[in-house]
Design goal:
- The chain is mainly α and about 150 residues long.
- The protein has 2 domains: about 45 residues; about 100 residues, no CATH class.
- Helix content is about 80%, strand content about 0%.
- The chain contains 5 helices and no strands.
- The radius of gyration is 30 Å and the shape is elongated.
- The relative contact order is 0.08.
Length: about 150
């Protein structure tokens, strides 16, 4: 009886060990498949080098600095549509470059590199005129909506 009980326990132990090995192998294969599917469904545009990201960041920041200098020199009161587009593109590119640098682990931060908000603090005229243009655009859209409602 004792030998039979030991044999049953031994067989159960071997079955349990086999099941655990099978389970962990299946989980490992599932993780590999999930990673491959994620790469297929959400392909990255390729990891851009830190130098390329820094160059893009500097280029877009320079465009905004030149715009700030032009506004200050000519004491302008508004931005053109082209300048508004330059601002929007620069904002998008700067934020993307900063995110890329952070993802690469090459973001140094203050005092050597500035976040988007910190850059805007150093461009007060551009920021003021951009906000003014956006407020005017929203007011115009709101007026058009009210006009359409009144016509109905």
């Amino acid at each position: 009886m004792d030998n039979f009980l030991l044999l049953v326990i031994g067989v159960l132990f071997i079955l349990l060990a086999g099941f655990l090995i099978f389970y962990f192998q299946t989980q490992q294969n599932f993780q590999e498949i999930s990673k491959k599917l994620e790469e297929i469904q959400h392909p990255q545009n390729g990891a851009r080098s830190s130098e390329a990201l820094k160059r893009e960041l500097a280029l877009q920041h320079d465009k905004l600095v030149v715009l700030e200098a032009d506004i200050t020199k000519n004491k302008r009161e508004s931005l053109t549509e082209e300048e508004l587009k330059i601002f929007d593109v620069a904002r998008h590119q700067i934020k993307a470059s900063i995110s890329g640098l952070k993802a690469n682990g090459d973001w140094v931060g203050i005092p050597f590199e500035y976040e988007w908000v910190e850059m805007l603090d150093r461009l007060p005229n551009v920021l003021f005129l951009y906000r003014k243009a956006e407020a005017e655009k929203q007011a115009l859209e709101l007026a058009q909506e009210n006009e359409q409602k009144n016509d109905q």
